[in-house]
Each structure stands twice: as C-alpha cells, then as structure tokens.
From TrEMBL:
Every Orn/DAP/Arg decarboxylase 2 N-terminal domain range: 42-276
Top-rank lineage group of the source organism: Eukaryota
Catalytic activity line of the entry: L-ornithine + H(+) = putrescine + CO2
Single annotated GO MF: ornithine decarboxylase activity
UniProt record similarity statement: Belongs to the Orn/Lys/Arg decarboxylase class-II family.
Protein name: ornithine decarboxylase
PROSITE patterns, per database record: ODR_DC_2_1
Metabolic or biological pathway, per its Swiss-Prot or TrEMBL entry: Amine and polyamine biosynthesis; putrescine biosynthesis via L-ornithine pathway; putrescine from L-ornithine: step 1/1
Cellular component, GO annotation: cytoplasm
GO biological process: putrescine biosynthetic process from arginine, via ornithine
Keyword Lyase attached: yes
Organism of provenance: Bemisia tabaci
Keyword field: Lyase, Polyamine biosynthesis, Pyridoxal phosphate
Amino acid sequence: MKLTEVEDQIYVMKSSTNAAKVLQTIAESGVKDEAFYILDIGTIIHKHHEWLSKLPRVKPHYAVKCNDNILVLETLAALGVGFDCASKGELNKVLSLGVAADRIIFANPAKPASHIRHAASLGVGLMTFDNETELHKVKELHPDAKLVVRIRCDAAVSQCPLGMKFGCDAILEAPHLMKLANSLGLEIVGVSFHVGSGCQDPPVFRKAISLARGLFDLGFELGFNMHLLDLGGGFPGDSSSSIDRIADIINLALEDYFPPQTNIEIIAEPGRFYVASAFTLATNIHSKREIYSTDKELLHTMYYINDGIYGSFNCILFDHYTPTPIPLTDSKSDQVFSCSLWGPTCDALDRIIENSFLPKMNIGDWIIFPDMGAYTVPVASTFNGFPIPKVYAVVDEKIWPALKDCAPLTDDHFAVYHSPASFGIGDYSPKWPKGMDSDEFEEPHPYLLEYLSAD
C-alpha cells in the first residue's frame, strides 16, 4: 500500500548533508512554525551495530513503552530486534508489523486478566511474573505460558528506579514462587531483572546476574527447562553517554556465571539506548516577557515556546530528565542572560527550565533540544488544545538501499530526494537558510520543504 502521510515515510538525504541541516532548513524556511522532531534513522542503526559489537551474546528486545513511533518499530523489526511489550495494545502494534510472537516478551509482572487472555490468543507465551497472584491468573488464563521470574536488584543510582514496584526478593521470595509454579504445573523458563532505567551503577548488573545463577540452579533441581536470562533495561542512550562499562561488566559476569557452553539464551530490554539520541526537538519562541529592576536593568527573560510539560517535556516530570536548550542560530555575542523557558499552556506548572543563561532571543527564534527520543512522544498529550509535535524521519542515502527490502519496510516507506516527481510536487525554487550556500544541501531539502508544506 502506498504511503502518503509525511510521518509514515523516511526522507532519504544525500550523504553530503545530515539531520541537523535538514532540521535547520525546515526551521528557517518559514514552512513550519509548530514544534517538530527530526528522527535520524541512521542513529538507530548505528546504535544497533554498537549493541551487537559490545554485547554480542545479548539479544536486544526493544522496550516499546520508551518510544512507540511506528517508524522506530518498523526499523527495529527490519533489523531483527525483539520486543518487550507491556500491554495488549503494545502487543497488537508490534504483531501488526508482521513480527513473530516468539520475538516478544510480555514483560509486565502484573497484567490485567484481559491482557493475559489476549496474549494467549495471539500465541505470545513468554511473560514475566513476581508474585503468587500472577501465577494463579496465568494458571487459569494461559496455562501454557513460558514464565520468567522477575527478581529485584536495584541500582544505587538510576534515572527511574523500578524495584519499588516490581521484582521479588531473589533469596526470600523467588524460591517459594518457583516451587508454587511447579506445584501448579506451570513452566518457568528463566529469570529476569531490571536494575532501573538509566542505570548509573554498572556493577549492579554483576550482582543481579549472580543472583539469577542461583535461581537457575534451583530451577534445574525442580525440573524446569531453564534456558532464558533477561537482563532488563538500564542502558543509557544520550549522545554523550556510553554503555562501554556496563557492557564490560555484563560480558565478564556472563562468562563467569553463564559461560557459552551452558547454552543459555541471553536477552535484554533496552529502550532509551536505541532512541534517545535519534530524536531532536525543534521549538519556536512565540512570546516573551522581560523583567526589569527599578533602575531599568534587565534581570530575567521568560521565553514561551510551543511545546511544554504537557507535551514532549513530560520527560522532566516522569523520566527525571534535564533537557539542554540550544539556540538554533549562533549569537554574534558571547554575552548570555538569565532566562527561563515555559510551555504554551495556561498552567503555571508548564515550566520547562527554571533558570538558564542564553543569548538574547526574539519571538520567532528557534530553540533546539537534542536527545529527546526517550519517554517523550508516547507520553505527550494535547492538553489545552496544543498539538503533539510531528516527527519527520530522515536517513542517509548510503543506508536506505539496505533497509528498503527488509520487511516490514518497503520502497514505499522512502521518499527519495532524486525522485521529486514521486511526491507529485513539480518544480520548486529553493529558499536557502540565511547565511548558508545552496550547494551545501545539493537540492534534497527543497523537495522536503514542499512535501512538508502540504501537511
């Protein structure tokens, strides 16, 4: 089926340009005045290659809740990544892409009964649990499920701790639950844990893996076919972060506790690792308020932008994230001034940054926020009638030929810069950003701008 919506397609860039230039072209063209995202598909692909090289024994199962943008899911599905789903809605979304049920782990330890029934009807068998009640629900609703006991092992420091809600004690509770499952005739196939989203305590992974080893031994004693270890999430994804230390600790711990000859399947549930740095948000200043002292000295400026706490910046409240504002246009002066950034709604809670220092900016100027791919788009609302920013995806021309034939991606997913006729837009005279030469872009961007203007 031909894809016609801009947000359903991936714009193919010439290798001489990049996602940042595309963003600048859109922002400064006058075509758009609403906030928008640029999604660089190439970043996701590079992250996947990094994962394969640094954690070669660990099969990634992307945490859909982190960012369920359809192009993200389609790209990851094309790369052969598995998926961590937490609800029947997420199951439906992933399975609709043609992903096989055995590439999914239903990693919610406390599932509504209707969701368990739904998983059973779809053939999704792999699922987590951490309490007696869940075992009895599974016994009644999905007795053929392949169960994974989730234990608690919290990082000392993490962006979002999860142990307060999920995970049983590996020593005091897990053995009892495994024996109960055995008495109920249920099948346990492995152990999972989640040290906390955005983990900043890499050694905790070794502790969790060692605890899992003990439960594997108990599982074998009980007659279970224990063959799956799920390392959960916690892998950072911002452009300034690295998983090197976490990977080193995990690889060594796996060698010590689950060496290759044990034939144990190792998976993990990365979310922000794949998408955080792939999304850049562009916002526009629509109003400002200057506060002066009694002697007319500028003390502070309040900038009002067209996205806020109820939109993309919900990540400040729910993901404990600190966004980094970057003026799109470089100031000719090194002087900066005290300011704050506010969202567009009428709620005083809608404050993005309380205290910052930026160059003097004007209404109509753009502020860019990098690393905005994790827990932003899927949690945003249209409170007060303000729209959720649209996402425009781009990919380098050297990458797209390898993607276009990898299901569920097809030729129709790509808008190719050298085929403007396929957009149905005709000729277009470029309007280049102020101070930039047209040969920097080599013509793909005008087609993109015309295409976007239709939306």
